[in-house]
């Protein structure tokens, strides 16, 4: 997803950046079940907007419980003993995933343009990072398909015992709007690799790339019913999935608030298995012996990437006292370098927030920062007449009790706080119900590994940030999630 | 379990010295009746106590301190402190954790007769079964996990670009454990052993019907030398102490064994509170499939023990016996013979095979389901009623001509009732066996390799037994498909339920392949 430090490694050269497609036609706007396109049972449609200019892109069929029921029936049938999917060799499943990766590579430009227009994501980022990660994750999981091993177990007594690692069954997957295509792939790739069938509900703000994938899934040759896609809203289609009595597992990426509702619904309905990837308020700890330029750059990208809309955003930066002032100075300089505007333009470094709701929430939190006494170093308000743009904002002299230090902002707002000692910063860093990621910048091996052990986070980065790759498990401690992806 | 772990057959020397059967302790005094926190015994915050009864005699055994939310809070505080970075428990070498578990197993061996006596008094299960099966399972499970303690390994991962990447499998933290009354000590050990092995701390709530052996373990935990706060035990009721655990914001994980109905409430409470991780071992309506080519005697005996063991109070109970048409009448005939021979009586008598049901609630529920069997048209072959006017004893009951729509074929009975149904083809029996929201265990009796392995693949159950029943040992994972549970206990797989994965990624200046 994030290739920090890719500059020095000749082995992985990023492809040249093409121009985004002008006049992209949206071909797939319906509900995808059994490899066919369906209208919604209710006849309803909903609108999708471009957050850079608030203009409508198109209408999408709005799925609700009835459509989810249809999709689950199709997925259940595709999962039946003796079906094409169940009798397919595991290696063939892997081949199909690799083929899908090939098709994503072929249509990389279309998909990247779509992500930029639908999600307000910088086209360059979408093309190079998001699409790169999608292709790699598909190929990674493709390789695992025929390596899902059980064990033989030396049990007491006259027995021959072995375990089988069977597919769970029909998996419901609810995808967020911040990395629509990447999160879609993170869910379907391991699910299909292990032989499950899926019913996917993409976020209502960003359904386009998921629906396009439906066409590629059909083209790649997945049997009908293996992948079904039902666009719609959380309280309707999403709830239908989390409550469904015939869905065996639900995987969700989104806010902690909604994650709790989903796990509750799973318990109330049929005890379906649950994986959750939720929010974070991740600490980024900078020691005086760190390479200061590197630390500033990583802290900057670690927060501002994709307009701050990342679950792993390094939104509490703890800087050791001796270098605090210099760190703040360089961070402001870095944040001021930004050009905001149309995400399709190569000269732009920051796009819009996803929608009005998020836009308002972020501005409200910025105001709380000002009110509660943090020092506003730059930015601090909206930008432009149209679209949901917010100026890159930096607060210094932030204290742990302020709302901007406690709540997930999900916007381009960077908090920089001061610390004195190792034990103090460990306590402060861990003092949150979140636990998704953390980072420490230091050259001292003892410090680095002490923090790696002490920080209560699913991922700990040392001298880097946002290094996420298909090979390494990703997920949350505490209320940042249950279970691991990748 | 029904095979007695091969206690007598395996490794018997030529010169046969048959050990005398252990005898229960008469007049055993119950020493531990309080709440166990920080290796000390506490009274309940409220001052309340509750009584625990002997289901064979219906007499009160003693009073136990009744824990509620404040006591759970105290226990969690202690468990949290014991889990703090830098605490004795966190600083202890993994190997030493393993040694403590081995020592605990040694003490269980030393006090085996006491524990088996307590278990029989509290649950009504036959003393010899408590001694040879429950306690055997406890000791072996502790030793199995003692061996894993210093082998909780993460991975190094070949990630793209210039990074060193590895995972750590860390303890989750404070684990809540809510245990049932059917195998009180064994179900506690199934949770305690992997939890401690992985470095967690515990707050345990044993079933209100059967707190005695769990509390006794508290004394052994202290004697072995586990640091204070590592294991805490709060006896009490589900809606009070149990709910306090499942909703607690400082408990990182909860493990529960019990009914599916309560399991759902627990998962819901975990979600509503702090998204604590959840493992559930719930009910079952387990199919036992007997093919015409099976060894008939073996099948009849296994099916019999499979349903009647522990007074029918097993989540693994073989409560839907599917018999291939051709051998159906003979199978029923032999099963009835077995059932009629089953000795029901005082669990302290060495000859007794079946004791009382656990309490009035369960007793009434089982009789009600038996009545439903009669009303809905099943054929009552033997038993079908309670044994005396006084007491919780039920006659071993066999129903034949059972059809899938009857309540006794759908609902978990948890009593000594064996429903036997007929089937024609493998395809048909697979569908019928899987046609339930449960999915805990299944058994297949056949000599045909193809049929055995086809059924092993097709049955939606966490465990499939072939030509055996209740073969449960520490090495093999156990748990439910569908609504019989979430997650696995035992085996290496339980470790995943008690560890949290942390990925550490370190940037290097150059790629180091």
UniProtKB/TrEMBL annotation, chain A:
Gene3D superfamilies, per the entry: Aldehyde Dehydrogenase, Chain A, domain 1, Aldehyde Dehydrogenase, Chain A, domain 2
Keyword Cytoplasm on entry: no
Alphabetized InterPro entries for the sequence: Ald_DH/histidinol_DH, Ald_DH_C, Ald_DH_CS_CYS, Ald_DH_CS_GLU, Ald_DH_N, Aldehyde_DH_dom
Annotated EC: 1.2.1.36
Keywords associated with the record: Lipid metabolism, NAD, Oxidoreductase
UniProt-listed SUPFAM superfamilies: ALDH-like (SSF53720)
GO molecular function: retinal dehydrogenase (NAD+) activity
Pathway: Cofactor metabolism; retinol metabolism
Gene Ontology process terms (BP): lipid metabolic process
Catalysed transformations (reactions): all-trans-retinal + NAD(+) + H2O = all-trans-retinoate + NADH + 2 H(+)
Record-linked PROSITE patterns: ALDEHYDE_DEHYDR_CYS, ALDEHYDE_DEHYDR_GLU
Catalytic machinery residues: 277
Domain Aldehyde dehydrogenase: 37-485
Family: Belongs to the aldehyde dehydrogenase family.
Protein name: retinal dehydrogenase
Organism: Crotophaga sulcirostris
Lineage, uppermost ranks: Eukaryota, Metazoa, Chordata, Craniata, Vertebrata
TrEMBL record, chain B:
Keywords: Cytoplasm, Lipid metabolism, NAD, Oxidoreductase
Subcellular location: Cytoplasm
InterPro entries: Ald_DH/histidinol_DH, Ald_DH_C, Ald_DH_CS_CYS, Ald_DH_CS_GLU, Ald_DH_N, Aldehyde_DH_dom, Aldehyde_DH_NAD(P)
Record's keyword annotation contains Protease: no
MF (Gene Ontology): retinal dehydrogenase (NAD+) activity
Pathway: Cofactor metabolism; retinol metabolism
Presence of the UniProt keyword DNA repair in the record: no
A biological process from GO: retinoic acid biosynthetic process
Residues forming the catalytic site: 281, 315
Predominant location category: cytoplasm
Domain Aldehyde dehydrogenase residue range list: 41-504
Main EC class the enzyme belongs to: oxidoreductase
EC number from the UniProt entry: 1.2.1.36
Reaction(s) catalysed (UniProt annotation): all-trans-13,14-dihydroretinal + NAD(+) + H2O = all-trans-13,14-dihydroretinoate + NADH + 2 H(+); all-trans-retinal + NAD(+) + H2O = all-trans-retinoate + NADH + 2 H(+); retinal + NAD(+) + H2O = retinoate + NADH + 2 H(+)
Recorded superkingdom: Eukaryota
GO cellular component: cytoplasm
Pfam families: Aldedh
Family: Belongs to the aldehyde dehydrogenase family.
Function: Catalyzes the NAD-dependent oxidation of aldehyde substrates, such as all-trans-retinal and all-trans-13,14-dihydroretinal, to their corresponding carboxylic acids, all-trans-retinoate and all-trans-13,14-dihydroretinoate, respectively. High specificity for all-trans-retinal as substrate, can also accept acetaldehyde as substrate in vitro but with lower affinity. Required for the biosynthesis of normal levels of retinoate in the embryonic ocular and nasal regions; a critical lipid in the embryonic development of the eye and the nasal region.
Subunit (UniProt): Homotetramer.
Stated name of the protein: Retinaldehyde dehydrogenase 3
Organism expressing this protein natively: Crotophaga sulcirostris
